[in-house]
# Entry
Amino acid sequence: MPAVRRSAPSPDSPLDAVLVLDGRHTTIPVARLFDDIPNVVFFVKDRAGRYVHVNRTLATRCGCRDPHDLSGRIASDLFPATLARHYREQDERVIREGRPVINSLDLHFYPDRRRGWCLTSKYPVRARDNGDILGVAGISRDLETSPGSQSSRDYPEVARALDYLHAHAGEPVSADALARASGLSPSQLTARIRRIFGTTPQRLVLRARIEHAMHLLAGTSEPIADIALACGFCDQSAFTRHFTRTAGLPPGAFRSRSSLTSS
# Structure
């Protein structure tokens, strides 16, 4: 298999991925790929919340023909106040804490401008030279297939549970605690999480703790044993076992690979 490694981004195509493939430079049109994925919104914002780049899907849903029409605009220019405030607070948390938000259950606009539920992930955008956070990049994937469906009425309670989970990602959150945060019984929440994510609340909690650990491993020099405790694991061996099962490699190897990728 030919070797593939990351290289510096092309200055004239800032959203294209430049790779060295079999010893030769090649460019992957990332922005174009996101234009071609149905029911997925992609965006990049600066620290002030101004859109730097969006895909065609987001531009169309905001009533614009050209994605460049959204450049320099902020969420409150495009969305109702309640949605815009939520997006802004989410962006500010990613920038402040320096860690991503994964699979947040959010309201968004669907193609006909009705509100619909989606899964949103946002990541800090860092400078290559010193790691400063310059903005936020994110995607939102539509969940609903039809307006007014029973599943769409299930989402608000699950969203409250996920908000609680994201706020306590470094803690051993119990399924009962998630149920209390959602306002549902444990069995009701379990059924809805299975329907949306295809997993159990316990596995969702574990995944959130592992994702938090990935952030700490990649972005800090804290000892692995300390990271294990910070993410709610009782000891390093249990942490290593769960991390390896989820990420596919041990924490130390993950840290080394993250260091190589960012260098």
Notes: Strands lie at 4-6, 17-21, 24-28, 40-46, 51-54, 101-109, 115-126, 133-142.
